[in-house]
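Quick start: what a row looks like.
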Amino acid sequence: GNDRRIEMDVESKDEIGDTIHRTVILEFMGKHSNLILVNEERKILEGFKHLTPYTNQFRTVMPGFQYEVPPTQHKQNPYAYT
């Protein structure tokens, strides 16, 4: 599909010097754009915009929740035209 997100894997050290892996996810969706940090299990560590079940019926973006990709918008593929 036409993904509206970019994922960047980063590597860092924790407090005791062990290597940790994180993923920074940039979602480009107009006024719903977001920046999310997840751990190796895709559990959300932090998000620029928090989405609760009360504010978004499709997914939750809060620390401790599993990351879910944004729902498909079923728009036409701009690459399908010549």
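That is the whole record. The two ends are 18 Å apart (CA to CA). The mean pLDDT is 89.
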